Amino acid sequence: MGASLFPSAAIVGAFLFAINFLCTIPELAIAKQEPITRHYKFDIRLQNVTRLCHTKSIVTVNGKFPGPAIIAREGDRVVVEVVNHVKNNVSIHWHGVRQIQSGWADGPAYITQCPIQTGQTYVYNFTIVGQRGTLFWHAHISWLRATLYGPIIIFPKHNVSYPFPKPFREIPMLFGEWWNTDTEAVITQALQTGAGPNVSDAFTINGFPGPLYNCSAKDTFKLKVKPGKTYLLRLINADMNDDLFFSIANHTLIIVEADAVYVKPFKTNILLIAPGQTTNVLLKTKHHHPNVAFLMAARPYFTGRGAFDNSTTAGILEYENPSNSSSTKSKSLPLLKPTLPAINDTTFAANFSNKFHSLANAEFPARVPQTVQKHFFFTVGLGSSPCPKNQTCQGPNGTKFAATINNISFTLPTTALLQAYFFGKSNGVYTTDFPSSPLFSFNYTGNNPLNNTMVSNGTKLVVLPFNTSVEVVLQDTGILGAESHPLHLHGYNFFVVGQGFGNFDTNKDPANFNLVDPVERNTIGVPSGGWVAIRFHADNPGVWFMHCHFEVHLSWGLKMAWIVLDGKQPNQKLPPPPSDFPKC
Description:
Belongs to the multicopper oxidase family. The protein is mainly beta. It is built from five helices and 33 strands. The strands form seven sheets. A six-stranded mixed beta sheet has the order 10-9-12-17-14-15, with helices on one face. Strands 11, 13, 16, 18, 19 and 20 form a six-stranded mixed beta sheet that branches. A six-stranded mixed beta sheet has the order 22-21-26-31-28-29.
């Protein structure tokens, strides 16, 4: 296919997000040398947005889609005033931020806070402690994060360099999804009928579907680069329900960071990024103007049985012409396309995941627990719930779809778990008897491993003493189909010490764990038909959510929570909630 020259208004729109981001960087250079407090205001309001020739009113922050960037340095305090002007209840999660002693600001509705109701304001107040890199923020209630999301860019402290060559420019690229219909109606209908929800109409890059969709050529993210330069692409998967393959035609990427943690650099032509994950890559441009443009394309990795959006989003990478000659305008340039793996290429997914390693050096050590005090074995997967009387359900065999950890589908309470825990009012809100392993063993990854797919329900938590060393093995199951599950842990990073296909073998697999330089992340894909083992120190008191970052699985109950008790020192205790803490 040939590249087309976009109308000038569309070019302005496609570049607006990146320009707004880049224009904020000089402020960091002239800021004080000491950590400072950075103030933001998020007005949650409706905004008419048109994509795929379809205009609808969406929930936004400050009328922007995607939302504005939070930009800070390591050590800075961030204060975000969120004012809710819409009819929906709202909460905002600062995905990947550790929230040391600031668990009240973590954001998941009914876990660490009650939602912000219409007309209410809540101020999120937290400090960036020991982190630098790319994260993101998003709504954490129902399916509002379909349009409520944006980047968090954390620069190193002053006079601290990247452990890789300084880039010429830095560009955030957020993958998302677009529905022509209201996503709140989509999930409401799915939960009522018990069926899988309708899939999105397009994937997006920085809010734009790109030229491979009908009625979307003008809505394309376009990145212009100079020859012979190094660019840092800050990739964020804010998709609702899909892992994505990504590639730039005829270019090699160097991966240098994952989930705001530096990694040993490695080259790749194709990367895989799960919802909730971030990946920083270096793009070294060609030394001379190539007289072609290059497609930057992303499409799903999917191994499940249900419906999914089998489409491709794309942006265009174009080299700036050193001369002003009109003979090589973009409309006349050939457009090269990348080759992406097959939709269900689990081998690529496993091999790619195994390439990530921590730097594990003196400056950036890998503090992986060498011994474990608490072991957990969690099965993750799908199941079913009974259809209510006098109702026809459209899930498996006339039931409703459900999703579980250790066959427990988590029930959200009607008050915040952290509030109930802190004030000692857990009675009737939650129990602390979440099982450390499945109630009975079976061939987890076999075909049709169970005749009975019914799940149990409850608001069950795990209690961990402060600074406990924890190991969790996350085991996918074949119940209603094996598939990848991107598991996200709030309040912590963890080390991915092992992973493999089939059923985890307690006697054999730990011998192969990497306890030297395992990658440190906040979100990891449980391999389809396999397992992954993670370790962390429970050194951050509070109540911390752990869940699948596929929004459909989260809605079906694939989630649980940890209570981490206070330590003995003042800096090991959770302070009281702020005075403006939302009420349920």
